[in-house]
């Protein structure tokens, strides 16, 4: 098998990265082409050694919150045609789940996450770099609804985390990483023209 094409999709929390990734995946699934998705969230560090209060206070919007060494090792393995043991993460307990999932290499690997373009040592791993550029007020609104519904949070906790870490870290790390992208996508996960352009680029590259 030829070396896989690795696509990194980044942007603020709530910008539409996951939806964009899902929509891209669906476009390939219709054609029966195998695509492997990796989410940077799964590489948040395990925190079993910390009490819950300490976990709740952690800054999850700093690059050091992620085990990027493991992510890099996994990308290298997939490039060499080897399977990986993909970690799973729980947003309610703020730590890794005990079980991992065996993932096989595929011709196209799509990675999505907030800090993927903010780590210079990860940039050479990617063939295509995409930044989803969505106004922060829209990101906050979407995050508020999602975190209360799916991640076991209260409106108060989302608002206070946003002020203390999410927003300042966005300006320090994520916003500047936009300039490393090959493509900047506006209008979030439903931008059909961007999806079509990226899909046809991928198809040409893997022919
Ligand atoms: N263009 C869009 N229009 C409407 N809702 C959207 C759009 N893009 C994303 N969403 C919704 O916003 C929420 C957050 O999007 P998501 O893709 O999970 O963001 P991210 O992965 O960047 O944190 C989800 O409920 C998603 O369905
Ligand atoms: N235990 C955790 C870990 C992460 N977060 C927040 O998740 C955001 C990144 O995930 P997205 O799917 O929204 O891109 C990030 O902004 C962290 O603040 C968390 O709240 N708790």
TrEMBL record:
<comment type="pathway">
    <text>Pyrimidine metabolism; CTP biosynthesis via salvage pathway; CTP from cytidine: step 1/3.</text>
</comment>
<keyword id="KW-0547">Nucleotide-binding</keyword>
<keyword id="KW-0067">ATP-binding</keyword>
<keyword id="KW-0808">Transferase</keyword>
<dbReference type="InterPro" id="IPR006083">
    <property type="entry name" value="PRK/URK"/>
</dbReference>
<dbReference type="GO" id="GO:0044206">
    <property type="term" value="P:UMP salvage"/>
</dbReference>
<dbReference type="GO" id="GO:0005737">
    <property type="term" value="C:cytoplasm"/>
</dbReference>
<comment type="similarity">
    <text>Belongs to the uridine kinase family.</text>
</comment>
<keyword id="KW-0418">Kinase</keyword>
<comment type="pathway">
    <text>Pyrimidine metabolism; UMP biosynthesis via salvage pathway; UMP from uridine: step 1/1.</text>
</comment>
<dbReference type="InterPro" id="IPR000764">
    <property type="entry name" value="Uridine_kinase-like"/>
</dbReference>
<protein>
    <recommendedName>
        <fullName>Uridine kinase</fullName>
        <ecNumber>2.7.1.48</ecNumber>
    </recommendedName>
</protein>
<feature type="domain" description="Phosphoribulokinase/uridine kinase">
    <location>
        <begin position="6"/>
        <end position="193"/>
    </location>
</feature>
<dbReference type="Pfam" id="PF00485">
    <property type="entry name" value="PRK"/>
</dbReference>
<dbReference type="InterPro" id="IPR027417">
    <property type="entry name" value="P-loop_NTPase"/>
</dbReference>
<dbReference type="GO" id="GO:0004849">
    <property type="term" value="F:uridine kinase activity"/>
</dbReference>
<keyword id="KW-0963">Cytoplasm</keyword>
<dbReference type="GO" id="GO:0044211">
    <property type="term" value="P:CTP salvage"/>
</dbReference>
<dbReference type="GO" id="GO:0005524">
    <property type="term" value="F:ATP binding"/>
</dbReference>
């Amino acid at each position: 098998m030829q070396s896989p094409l690795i696509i990194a999709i980044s942007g603020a929390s709530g910008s539409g990265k996951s939806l964009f990734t899902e929509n891209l995946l669906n476009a390939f699934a219709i054609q029966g082409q195998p695509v492997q998705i990796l989410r940077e969230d799964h590489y948040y560090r395990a925190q079993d050694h910390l009490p819950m209060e300490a976990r709740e206070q952690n800054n999850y919007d700093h690059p050091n919150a992620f085990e990027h060494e493991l992510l890099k090792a996994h990308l290298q393995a997939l490039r060499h045609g080897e399977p990986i043991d993909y970690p799973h993460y729980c947003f309610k307990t703020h730590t890794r789940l005990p079980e991992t999932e065996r993932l096989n290499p595929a011709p196209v690997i799509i990675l999505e996450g907030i800090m993927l373009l903010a780590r210079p040592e990860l940039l050479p791993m990617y063939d295509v770099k995409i930044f989803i550029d969505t106004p922060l007020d829209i990101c906050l609104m979407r995050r508020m609804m999602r975190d209360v519904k799916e991640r076991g949070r209260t409106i108060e906790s989302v608002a206070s985390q946003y002020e203390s870490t999410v927003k300042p870290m966005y300006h320090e790390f994520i916003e500047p990483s936009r300039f490393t992208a090959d493509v900047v996508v506006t209008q979030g996960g439903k931008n059909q023209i961007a999806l079509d352009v990226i899909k046809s680029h991928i198809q040409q590259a893997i022919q």
